């Protein structure tokens, strides 16, 4: 009697095909994951991101810097890329990159020291800086004339174009009583110039883009917490910025000014008078408090007609989270200590006992 043998060759072939198919799918999936992981984090976003690579910095440290700056899609894939590509000749420099660059493009630029991506120079807009100070800082590094910068920032046609482009700019900046239309809107920060012959329009947009990134997350809070427009808010915050020597005092000083606004009292801020007079310092005479200017918060109730300086996000947050109190007055002593009072009589006594100028 013949034995019946089962032909398993067909089934074995099918199993092999399935296994191979699974392997191919896994490899394809892994490749897709890897390629996506080293792709650009935000295609189309050409906003400048500066990264400073110090001498002797390792590739994994550089990867961490890129990740913190939002330039790495997937850190695991980044580590794999660094391991496979072994970029070992990265040159120490400040690189001006963007989120529309892939990890391959970024490391290629740093590995070659490509001058197209290295900073030619930088300028800093300090916290509390005014428009003339900003123009001076830019002029020194860019070669652009201060007058040309200020003229561009006062050009009505240019300003109207900016209003259309940026949600936080409104017709408030076209007010004829403003000394500088963009005062308070150019975010205080260190900016890097990647071009040998930069133009003021690109520089201005870089600063406004930064301001937009800082204002967008607090857009609703400005309305709900303070019931102010952006222009009013920056005007308010700029006064707090210039009146506060120490960060710890800002929430309380903001609270004092908020109380005065709520009671329809004049802010009576000396620094608004000094701004109107194009002066620095602390001493303001009684005669000077009568200067005819919409910035003068002695002569005019409410906020000044516009911001008086550049305001950092930390001050904005302190204004939004001002410290509630019954205080209506404050006075800073020579060492910067701020003394608060609830009545004018108390305030006068404090001033008499502590006046130093």
TrEMBL record:
The record marks 243 as: Important for catalytic activity. InterPro entries: MLTG-like (IPR003770). It catalyses: a peptidoglycan chain = a peptidoglycan chain with N-acetyl-1,6-anhydromuramyl-[peptide] at the reducing end + a peptidoglycan chain with N-acetylglucosamine at the non-reducing end. Its EC number is 4.2.2.29. Its main location: membrane. Keywords: Cell membrane, Cell wall biogenesis/degradation, Lyase, Membrane, Transmembrane, Transmembrane helix. It is found in: Cell membrane. Coiled coil: none annotated. The keyword Hydrolase does not apply. It is an enzyme of class 4 (lyase). The chain crosses the membrane at residues 12-35. The keyword Transcription does not apply. It is a single-pass membrane protein. It comes from the Bacteria. Functions as a peptidoglycan terminase that cleaves nascent peptidoglycan strands endolytically to terminate their elongation. Belongs to the transglycosylase MltG family. This is Endolytic murein transglycosylase. It comes from Anaerovorax odorimutans.
């Amino acid at each position: 009697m013949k034995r019946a043998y089962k032909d398993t060759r067909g089934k074995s072939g099918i199993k092999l095909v399935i296994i191979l198919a699974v392997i191919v799918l896994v490899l394809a999936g892994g490749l897709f994951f890897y390629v996506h992981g080293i792709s650009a984090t935000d295609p189309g976003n050409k906003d400048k991101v500066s990264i400073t690579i110090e001498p002797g910095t390792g590739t994994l440290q550089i990867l961490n810097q890129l990740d913190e700056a939002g330039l790495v899609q997937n850190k695991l894939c980044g580590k794999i890329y660094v391991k496979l590509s072994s970029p070992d000749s990265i040159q120490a420099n400040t690189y001006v990159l963007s989120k529309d660059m892939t990890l391959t493009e970024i490391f290629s630029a740093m590995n070659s020291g490509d001058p197209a991506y290295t900073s030619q120079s930088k300028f800093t807009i300090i916290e509390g800086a005014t428009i003339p100070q900003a123009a001076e800082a830019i002029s020194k590094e860019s070669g652009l004339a201060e007058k040309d910068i200020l003229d561009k920032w006062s050009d009505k046609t240019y300003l109207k174009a900016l209003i259309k482009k940026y949600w936080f700019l409104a017709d408030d900046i076209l007010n004829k009583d403003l000394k500088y239309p963009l005062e308070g809107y150019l975010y205080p920060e260190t900016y890097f110039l990647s071009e040998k012959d930069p133009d003021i329009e690109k520089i201005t947009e870089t600063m406004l883009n930064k301001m937009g990134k800082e204002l967008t997350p607090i857009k609703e809070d400005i309305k709900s917490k303070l019931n102010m427009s952006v222009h009013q808010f920056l005007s308010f915050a700029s006064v707090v910025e210039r009146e506060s020597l120490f960060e710890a005092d800002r929430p309380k000083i903001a609270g004092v000014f908020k109380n005065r606004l709520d009671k329809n009292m004049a802010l009576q801020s000396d620094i608004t008078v000094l701004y109107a007079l194009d002066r620095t310092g602390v001493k303001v005479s009684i005669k000077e408090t009568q200067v005819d200017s919409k910035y003068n918060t002695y002569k005019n109730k409410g906020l000044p007609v516009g911001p008086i300086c550049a305001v950092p996000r930390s001050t904005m947050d302190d204004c939004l989270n001002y410290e509630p109190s019954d205080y209506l007055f404050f006075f800073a002593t020579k060492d910067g200590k701020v003394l608060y009072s609830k009545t004018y009589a108390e305030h006068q006594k404090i001033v008499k006992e502590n006046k130093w100028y």
